[in-house]
Amino acid sequence: MRRKLMLSATLCSLSLLSGCGTLGPATDGSCKVFKPISNSTKDTTQTRREVIAHNKVYGAICKG
């Protein structure tokens, strides 16, 4: 009985977690507010690195 209960709890947890994964671009509207950032001539080297990292994440999430 206990084994069946543990198996049921595990399967239930896995089914809930599987709903979070996506294979394609984001479809929840987050790409409408999450946009690439442009560099400024006043940006420091660190800021430029952060802008590049941000834009790479945008590309991976919103462009597929």
Q: Report the span from N to C terminus.
A: 45 Å
Mean pLDDT: 77
Helix content: 55-70%
Q: Which structural class fits the helix and strand makeup? A: mainly alpha
Largest sheet: none
Uncertain parts: none
Sequence-ordered SSE layout with sheet pairings:
Blueprint: H1 2-18, H2 30-33, H3 45-62
Keywords for this entry:
single chain; 64 residues; mainly alpha
How would you describe what is shown here?
With 64 residues, this protein is mainly alpha-helical. It has a domain at 25-64. 61% of the residues lie in helices and 0% in strands. It contains three helices and no strands. The chain has helices spanning 2-18, 30-33, 45-62. The model has no long low-confidence stretch (mean pLDDT 77).
In short:
By secondary structure, this protein is mainly α. 61% of the residues lie in helices and 0% in strands.
